[in-house]
Inverse folding.
């Protein structure tokens, strides 16, 4: 006996769709979310890590729906769903609860609360940003914002409904504090998240008000002559005083503020090189630190070219410092850009060399000019035998690859002696000079 069951299968599928998916947007519905959330809470507990739940409510959606009609509203919701789907990872779930409420669930990934919070802020900002882009509905443009409540699980609650409730509560707080914002459920999390969000706002402000300054640290050759310098950014905060780049560069990276900030660093460095030239205090070159995101900009090399041209400097006056991590994160792009920089005449240096990656094969393939031995290996020289071997190895490797090598974090005369004996002839560190404002820099 044969019977055609395809019709039955199709019907089953349809029932399944209706039961678990939102017919308008095609996103999972509340029921499916609850199901997945339950599993993810259990998994996060087992693996001792934190997942995150984001509760979104579009701002002023009702007004649009009432004034422009349901069709426009429906179209908008569909587009919101598409945008959410586009920015989340495959293992994440975006769901429509109903009305203009959406939820994004991210399974447990981070075992540190601070790290989980940090990444939740990042994703929340990404969601906010994507919703803030104009929508085109039936030929006209609409601007939208959303309020987002965030909670981590399984921190304060373990039942799926309770976790959603927390995110909902947080979302209301976001609405209360002016919409188009993010709010975290737990006070402890709110604190970390607040600090970050405040820092972000302050960096934006600081850029406008020129609170950033560059300090310059000398780099000497083996005769002790200052031949070059490294530009290091400082933030002169009106209340908190001098803030270290270690504190704000990571936030600037995450929020893309590193792009205007990094461009400013390069411009200001070039301006300073020119100013020293005119004062007859010319320096060979100045190295600037370029972070990964900055280097990944498609027009990074053109940007450098433009800045050099604007400042009327030749390309050999500027050196770009990149970390190993940013170099290997996309090797083809790196090779292309480094070649372009080389053609332009700008040299590149690998900063903090040695702490990054064990695979050194990439070194051969890259047009690098310099290796900068990380200060952690220099610190305990010459006593620490391991460090001594590592440093010697790096120096020999640089030699055989015909790369210039410089040591950073040089604090004692003994370290200089050791390095010189092994064949490293350039040094940077407190022993030679601390980073100082341009006016106090003596070459
Ligand atoms: P880095 O590029 O490896 O810079 C060297 C850091 O070591 C600097 O810290 C410098 O002040 C410090 N240092 C120099 N000599 C010595 C020494 O003898 N002993 C010790 N203990 N430390 C020494 P700083 O200025 O706090 O900068 C920290 C990091 O922040 C830099 O590490 C760099 O990665 C980043 N950074 C600084 N300026 C910029 C910038 O303009 N753009 C970007 N993207 N990152 C920057
Ligand atoms: Mg550096
Ligand atoms: Mg370094």
């Amino acid at each position: 006996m044969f019977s055609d069951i395809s019709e039955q299968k199709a019907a089953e599928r349809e029932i399944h769709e209706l039961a678990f998916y939102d017919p308008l947007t095609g996103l999972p519905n509340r029921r499916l979310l609850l199901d997945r959330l339950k599993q993810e809470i259990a998994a996060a507990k087992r693996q001792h890590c934190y997942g995150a739940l984001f509760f979104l409510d579009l701002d002023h959606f009702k007004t649009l729906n009432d004034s422009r009609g349901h069709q426009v509203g429906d179209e908008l919701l569909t587009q919101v769903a598409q945008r959410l789907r586009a920015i989340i990872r495959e293992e994440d779930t975006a769901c429509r609860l109903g009305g203009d409420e959406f939820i994004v669930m991210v399974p447990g990934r981070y075992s540190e609360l601070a790290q989980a919070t940090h990444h939740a802020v990042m994703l929340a900002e990404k969601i906010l940003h994507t919703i803030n882009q104009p929508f085109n509905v039936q030929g006209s443009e609409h601007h939208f914002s959303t309020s987002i409540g965030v909670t981590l699980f399984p921190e304060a609650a373990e039942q799926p409904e309770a976790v959603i409730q927390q995110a909902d509560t947080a979302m209301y707080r976001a609405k209360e504090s002016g919409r188009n914002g993010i709010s975290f459920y737990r006070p402890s999390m709110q604190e970390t998240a607040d600090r970050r969000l405040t820092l972000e706002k302050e960096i934006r402000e600081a850029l406008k008000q020129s609170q950033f300054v560059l300090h310059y640290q000398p780099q000497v050759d083996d005769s002790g002559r200052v031949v070059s310098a490294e530009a290091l950014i400082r933030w002169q905060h009106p209340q908190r005083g001098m803030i270290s780049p270690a504190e704000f560069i990571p936030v600037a990276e995450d929020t893309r503020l590193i792009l205007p900030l990094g461009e400013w660093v390069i411009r200001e460095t070039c301006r300073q090189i020119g100013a020293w030239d005119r004062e007859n205090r010319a320096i060979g070159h100045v190295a600037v630190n370029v972070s990964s995101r900055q280097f990944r900009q498609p027009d990074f090399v053109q940007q450098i070219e433009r800045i050099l041209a604007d400042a009327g400097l030749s390309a050999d006056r500027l050196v770009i410092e990149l970390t190993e991590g940013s170099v290997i994160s996309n090797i083809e792009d790196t090779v292309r850009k480094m070649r372009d920089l080389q053609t332009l005449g700008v040299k590149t240096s690998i900063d903090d060399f040695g702490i990054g990656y064990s695979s050194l094969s990439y070194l051969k393939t890259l047009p690098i000019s310099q290796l900068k031995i990380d200060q952690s290996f220099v610190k305990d020289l010459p006593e620490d035998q391991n460090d001594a071997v590592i440093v010697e190895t790096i120096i020999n490797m640089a030699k055989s690859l015909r790369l210039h090598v410089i040591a950073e974090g040089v604090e004692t005369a003994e370290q200089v002696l050791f390095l010189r004996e092994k064949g490293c002839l350039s040094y940077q560190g407190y022993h030679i000079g601390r980073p100082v404002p341009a006016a106090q820099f003596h070459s």
Q: What stands out?
A: The radius of gyration is 27 Å. The longest helix spans residues 187-208. The chain has two domains: 6-197, 210-440. DSSP finds 17 helices and 17 strands in the chain.
